Amino acid sequence: MKLQLALDLVNIPEALEVVAEVQEHIDVVEIGTPIVINEGLHAVKAIKDAFPQLEVLADLKVMDAGGYEVMKASEAGADIITILGATTDETIKGAVAEAKKQGRQILIDMINVSDIAKRAEEVDKLGVDYICVHTGYDLQAVGKSSFEDLRTIKSVVKQAKTAVAGGIKLSTLPEVVQAGPDLVIVGGGITGEADKKATAAEMKKLISQG
Ligand SMILES: O=C([C@H](O)CO)[C@H](O)[C@H](O)COP(=O)(O)O
């Protein structure tokens, strides 16, 4: 089980500072959608250049032009690129083909997919690397979480690795770890803490024990 730090509400210098603080306790750094919108793929390159030992995920949430977007993110140094589960199979197939060519991985973000079990079974057959259940900021704000959806994908996905994101904190991590995802994604649960390093270390410890 790996720990991914999601960086969303920072610029490139702030992102570099946070990763420097917690780098020994994380496996993957996510350049979140807001950073990509604000800074472009330069943010992916800046983190990969500074921390080549860490995997970098570009959270592009691609909805169209799958092959092209994966090619550009790969050029910037992304190891993993996100594609929306809500898009067409054609977009996902294009992304998977390009990722294989470039030696990169595809994570399917199931945000706002209504029938999680059905769509997870479908995308699992398209050769994707990860299927991720995700409660976005706007639904977190009205009290939703992804824990039930994680159990759902764990019961239907046969090929891909599973991931979970959305509002995970140190206090809720044990429940997540118990469900056994391959990748746990945490943003505000680390970046919102006064001692980011200690929080990431404690999370990594819980994950290693799980
Ligand atoms: O993907 C994300 C969100 O849609 C904003 O881009 C976040 O990276 C993801 O939700 C993890 O962050 P937290 O919810 O703060 O843990």
UniProtKB/TrEMBL annotation:
Residues 2-203 form the Orotidine 5'-phosphate decarboxylase domain. Keywords: Carbohydrate metabolism, Lyase, One-carbon metabolism. Its EC number is 4.1.2.43. It catalyses: D-ribulose 5-phosphate + formaldehyde = D-arabino-hex-3-ulose 6-phosphate. Pathway: One-carbon metabolism; formaldehyde assimilation via RuMP pathway; D-fructose 6-phosphate from D-ribulose 5-phosphate and formaldehyde: step 1/2. One of its GO terms (biological process) is formaldehyde assimilation via ribulose monophosphate cycle. GO terms for molecular function: 3-dehydro-L-gulonate-6-phosphate decarboxylase activity; hexulose-6-phosphate synthase activity; orotidine-5'-phosphate decarboxylase activity. InterPro entries: 3-hexulose-6-phosphate_synth, Aldolase_TIM, HPS/KGPDC, OMPdeCOase_dom, RibuloseP-bd_barrel. Transmembrane segments: none annotated. PANTHER family: 3-KETO-L-GULONATE-6-PHOSPHATE DECARBOXYLASE SGBH-RELATED. Belongs to the HPS/KGPDC family. HPS subfamily. NCBIfam families: RuMP_HxlA. This is 3-hexulose-6-phosphate synthase. It comes from Paenibacillus zeisoli. The lineage of its organism: Bacteria, Bacillati, Bacillota, Bacilli, Bacillales.
